[in-house]
Write the structure tokens for this entry.
Amino acid sequence: VSWILGLRYFDIDEKIKMYFTKPFDGIPQTSRYRIRTENTSFGLQLGGDLEYNPYHFLTWGVVVKGGGLFNRDKQRTLMLDNFAYFAQVFPFIELRPTKHFFFLFNYQVLYVGAIATASGNLTFHGKGDILDHGGHIIYHGATGTIQFNF
């Protein structure tokens, strides 16, 4: 068991392009709508690491992190020092064929909340027209690493 304390930095950018076509005097007229958001988030993180080493060549465990972020977001206007937050969890397996050579496999889930999103700037009127996710984003995926330590 170990504690994790550190700094965290994110740069999340989004774009949405939409086209609306409506007939005007029998001729289709198309309007374009484009939104771009940029978020730069930084702050402290605190977490923990729980590991089990059944053999000298194998380690498995889970890492959990969370923290608060200062978020600078842009969408034509600049907003400074808005508060955002994140949480990260990932189980991992580490194989060590030798003392200095490692294979590391994990599946990471990263949640970032209260940031400016492109879809948050759209409002639809009608049934079933939902795009806004409230400024919350989840990233996830598997990773593999080969590591040499000296």
Notes: The mean pLDDT is 83.
